[in-house]
Amino acid sequence: MTQLSDDADALELAWEAYEENNLQRAAELLGRALEFNENHPGVHHLAAMIGMAMGRSAEAEQAFKLALSLDDASAIMLLDAADCAAVNGDFELSLERLEEAYELASAEEESLGTGPNDVLIDALRMQIHTLLILGRREDARALCDQIPADLSSYPAQFALELAYAQVDAGDFAGATTAIEQAAAAPGANARTHYYRALLREESGDYRGATTSMLMAREQLVKMDDPPWAERRALFEKRLQRALSNLPSAHSQLLEGALVVIEDVPGAESVVEGIDPLLRAWLADVPIPVRNPKGEIDPEGDT
Which of the two ends of the chain, N or C, has the fewest CB atoms closer than 10 A to its terminal CB? Predict the structure, then answer.
């Protein structure tokens, strides 16, 4: 058995176990670290991360609050805490933490004289997306102005992540160079082709947009299922059970409908304008007409 001389040893080993996705071992080592020093902010940071990984986001939030109260937070801890707040649906709190993380990362970059770091870029990217979720599109566009026009000094993946955020915020011009270069490179992934399609659609190049969407679909089809993916037969059973438990107003609309499960829409559907990243597609399902009281009008046109 590994001998732990102090809280630092226990905490380091616990983090290693967490990064290896050995959550049980990480939790055991974390317990030892707590014995050495229960007031170490890193201990509660890791407790929060383990909670998140186990789907216990409410418990993770409490651990983050404790970690943040014990010491000056690091930018990385604030990013993780912002992610937890977002999972819990508290996007205002998430944004507050992201703004603080961005300020800390900016100060660190300036004091060290280093180039752009991943924490700074993640904080900026996540702020833009959170503002969009909150419906603050103009603020998100304004934040895009903090992204340098020339991203050539940034690592390619960092520049690309910022470009994706720019497209999401509607800043298409600022994102064009990074996305076009990435899409033209060998081995471009589905996400890059997808965002290239959005750029082309915005510029009016609909043929080019369709081509890029088809390329995105092709890459999606080639991807292996993630390790947590359910077997198709089991997923079909769960889906049928979910459909049978729908409220009557909704189940009536789907009565007799053919439900087909595919990893991505077919190529012919993408050509017709169906988004290859679409999570669900309802075809030939009538859309109900509601009367002024909000009730479905059975005699209404659909």
Answer: N
pLDDT tens digit string along 35-45? 877 888 889 99
Please state the pTM of the whole predicted model. Answer: 0.70
Distance CA 171, CA 138 (A): 11
- Distance, in Å, from the CA atom of 177 to the CA atom of 179, rounded to the nearest integer, reads 6
Distances (CA, A) of 73 to 26, 37, 99, 125: 22, 17, 13, 20
* Helix, strand, or coil (residue 296): strand
DSSP collapsed to 3 states, 80-107: HHHHHHHHCCCHHHHHHHHHHHHHHHHH
Higher-scoring residue by pLDDT: 40, 4: 40
Cα–Cα nearest to 38, from 28, 26, 27, 30: 30
Other CB atoms within 10 Å distance of the CB of residue 32: 16
CA 106 to chain centre: 23
Nearest Cα to 83, choosing from 100, 65, 66, 97? 97
Which of left, alpha, beta for 89 (phi over 0: left; psi -120 to 50: alpha)? left
d(CA 150, CA 197): 22
Give which of 200, 194, 188 is closest to 278, Cα–Cα.
Answer: 194
Fill in the DSSP letter of residue 54. T
Listed in sequence order, the residues at least 6 apart from 90 whose beta carbon sits closer than 8 Å to its beta carbon are: none
Structure tokens at 107: 């100060």
Residue 63 near residue 43 (C-beta atoms within 8 A): no
pLDDT > 90 in the chain, percent: 41
Percentage of the residues of the chain whose pLDDT score is greater than 70: 86
